[in-house]
Specification:
The protein has one domain. The chain has 3 helices and no strands. The termini are far apart. The model has no long low-confidence stretch (mean pLDDT about 70).
Length: about 55
């Protein structure tokens, strides 16, 4: 569970989502795993865009 929360935290920060909100969803069971996976996928894509835009 700690790994999930840590990953969610990083995902939330990357997507500009409040970490506390994300934690509450996970702790209260309101955040389905599918939603978490979609968030994670979106963060990975966003991160890839940032890396492409970065000056070398």
């Amino acid at each position: 569970m700690i790994g999930l929360l840590g990953g969610a935290c990083k995902t939330a920060v990357m997507l500009g989502i409040d970490r506390g909100t994300l934690h509450q969803h996970i702790h209260k069971g309101r955040m389905p795993m599918a939603l978490y996976k979609r968030l994670r996928e979106a963060a990975i894509q966003r991160f890839a865009e940032i890396i492409k835009e970065a000056p070398r």
